[in-house]
Amino acid sequence: MSNAARAEHSPARAPAPRPALDSSDLSAAGLRAFFNIARDWELSAEEQITLLGSPGRSTFFKWKAAPQSARLGRDTLERLSLILGIYKALQILLPDPKAADTWIRRPNAAPPFGGHPAIDRLLAGNISDLVAVRQYLDAMRGGWA
Length: 145
What we know:
By secondary structure, this protein is an all-alpha fold. 59% of the residues lie in helices and 0% in strands. It contains eight helices and no strands. The protein has helices at residues 3-9, 23-40, 45-51, 57-65, 74-93, 97-102, 118-122, 127-140. Helix 2 crosses helix 5 (74-93). The longest helix is centred in the middle third of the chain and has 20 residues, at 74-93. The protein is globular and about 50 Å long.
């Protein structure tokens, strides 16, 4: 049998499976990014804890000291994703880093904020509040609302 005929009759090889992302990889990367954002936004430890979904203080400080050891749950990973999206949207909307980083603390008359700073909405503690801020910023960018 010729090589062409052999290739024609041989089963197709499926591509090698891509290794799944380990949740610890996502956890570590997300936490490192979060702590950098927290520094840029000048968030207190209490504010950081609230944004992360109110883990215990000892857990929070373990995550901060060794993000590579963290195993975050779905809720915390979702919160991290939303916060990273908010940060990115601000960087796009407000190219001046100081303006982008201080936006969350400035009073805002837009409907989601009612004259209060965005940080007040973010610190309400609910994922839905993070979603509302993210959607507002995405709408301002001309994205989904």
